[in-house]
Amino acid sequence: MGTSVVATVRLILLIAAVLFIVVYGAMVIRLRALLNRAGTFQCSLRVGSGAWRTGVMLFRPDALLWFATRSLRPQPRFVIPRSALRLSGHSTAGDDIIVADLSVGSSTLQAAMSSASLAGLVSWLDSAPPAEEPTDI
């Protein structure tokens, strides 16, 4: 009886270990695939006064897409429309880490990124097409 219990416990531990390795491996593959796409950068995000979440931000022509690092979800966790996004300020948080204060409609976000990523974000915001074509030319 004692031998079968030990064998069952070992089998359960083995299955748990294999499951952990498979899930962790899938997360690593997903993260590498995200980071290999053009227009991505590492960016931690905080919504309101909530907790910081690590992730990857992806530039799209009409929106920023934010993917959580510790997730298997293929869709972005947040989609931030370019037309509603405003950069209200930024501050330095450490060696080459900038915290950008963003507003999306009535929501506030903070995004921590490298200074090069902030320069890319500012350039992306500035290069947006005008909301309305001038008609009095």
Key terms for this structure?
137 residues, alpha+beta, four-stranded antiparallel β-sheet, 2 helices, 8 strands, 34% helix, elongated
Notes on the protein architecture:
The protein has a 4-stranded antiparallel beta sheet with strand order 1-3-4-5, with helices on both faces. A 4-stranded antiparallel beta sheet has the order 2-8-7-6. A hairpin with a 3-residue loop joins strand 3 (55-59) and strand 4. It has 137 residues and is an alpha+beta fold. It contains 2 helices and 8 strands, in the order αββββββββα. The termini are far apart.
Short description:
The chain is an alpha+beta fold and 137 residues long.
Q: Please give the count of helices.
A: 2
Number of strands: 8
Distance between the termini: 91 Å
Give me the side-by-side strand order of the main sheet: 1-3-4-5
Helix content: 25-40%
Residue stretches low in confidence (pLDDT < 50, at least 5 long) are: none
Question: How are the secondary structure elements laid out?
Answer:
Elements: H1 2-35, E1 40-42, E2 44-47, E3 55-59, E4 63-68, E5 78-81, E6 85-94, E7 97-104, E8 107-114, H2 115-126
Antiparallel strand pairs: 1-3, 2-8, 3-4, 4-5, 6-7, 7-8
